[in-house]
């Protein structure tokens, strides 16, 4: 039954997109996922940790100036009305990022308060690999550090932003698709059985899909390759 | 004769004063404390690491074990929140993540490895004490806590101070806290270490 409802919503949404907004119609539209799924020598010894922490921090600080995504041409999403209110969120855990030739795991922090969402990837030694802040109108990449590229850091930022907002959704609207936009990136949430089942992240060039369970989330590209998977406590 | 005695007394006083003053300088006390650590060729301790950032209310907490073997073998074995190993051997750094029963190599920056190795070897070659890159002050409330302020301007942009707390006996470092300019910090608390010999095999992922 839920599946039928979702499919109808999907068709209706696609129709509205096609008729109402030419930009949306050019975006690859991901269908919803199936419903119902649930020191050694002298001072050296003193500073072993410090040495490890300082040098990456030094390099990190020299790495990147704050980066803001360009403001895209404005357009009105078919459903811009917000049906949920920002809520304080505090998540910690770890993410595995799939990079060009390897994977890497880092701790992540995600906090939101008063509509601002802060997220960070931190390596074992405490070095921030990516720091991203998002609010209603802008997503800012404060810094990133290799091997996390700017592109991957921004992608993680969108994942964290979407994840935070998924907690704000009024989950009583069972099965209702909701949609938001942040600087040209469209977030579409698919709900089922009072759970966030999946959400799609659309940029004008690429589409991603995020699968969310009770304590994990996975970001896939449109070929369903895993780009990033996070587990929180 | 009186003059000579006075001279001798004066000399002794000056020498005594000199020794007294030297004993009291934070740099000297820090150097003494550090020398005691250098007597151990091997070192292993559990630790808890707190990473605090102003942007976030709660710090990140991780736990693991650090091992060291003279002159240049270092192993960080993190157990929480996820298991991983960082190995440092002369000029190389390797990271491994424990995944489905085995250790999978992770990317790491060669430039970081080289910089770390250079720094560590500088200490072990004894150059560190000749060109100490910090101003030292002693915490007046806790006799064995030192606060180090970086002299280098570049270092100052990264961190404002480093606090080091020695054990009461001075045989190991209990805590290290690295304070950054913006109030962020990394705080590491060591448990009581063991100084037993560590075989080379310990510094591998096997």
List keywords for this structure.
heterodimer, A: 233 residues, alpha+beta, twelve-stranded antiparallel beta sheet, 5 helices, 12 strands, 26% helix, B: alpha+beta, outer membrane lipoprotein receptor (LolB), chain A, eleven-stranded antiparallel beta sheet, 4 helices, 27% helix, globular, disordered N terminus
Structural overview:
In chain A, strand 11 and strand 12 form a beta hairpin. Chain A has a single domain, classed as outer membrane lipoprotein receptor (LolB), chain A. Chain A has five helices and twelve strands. The model of chain A is unreliable at 12-83 (pLDDT under 50). By secondary structure, chain A is of the alpha+beta class. Helix content of chain A is 26%, strand content 36%. A twelve-stranded antiparallel sheet of chain A has the order 1-6-5-4-3-2-12-11-10-9-8-7, with helices on both faces. With 206 residues, chain B is an alpha+beta fold. Chain B has a single domain, classed as Lipoprotein localisation LolA/LolB/LppX (outer membrane lipoprotein receptor (LolB), chain A). Chain B has helices at residues 2-24, 26-37, 110-124, 153-158, and strands at residues 42-52, 60-69, 73-80, 84-89, 92-99, 102-106, 134-138, 145-150, 161-166, 173-179, 185-190. In chain B, strands 6-5-4-3-2-1-11-10-9-8-7 form an eleven-stranded antiparallel sheet. Chain B is globular. The interface between A and B is large, with 46 and 63 residues.
Q: CATH homologous superfamily of chain B?
A: Lipoprotein localisation LolA/LolB/LppX
Beta-strand percent range of chain B: 35-45%
What is the arithmetic mean of pLDDT of chain A? 63
Q: CATH fold name of chain A, please?
A: outer membrane lipoprotein receptor (LolB), chain A
Strand-pairing-aware structural class of chain B: alpha+beta
Oligomer: heterodimer
CATH architectural name of chain A: Clam
Number of domains of chain B: 1
Biggest contact: A-B, 46 and 63 residues
- Gyration radius of chain B, in Å: 21 Å
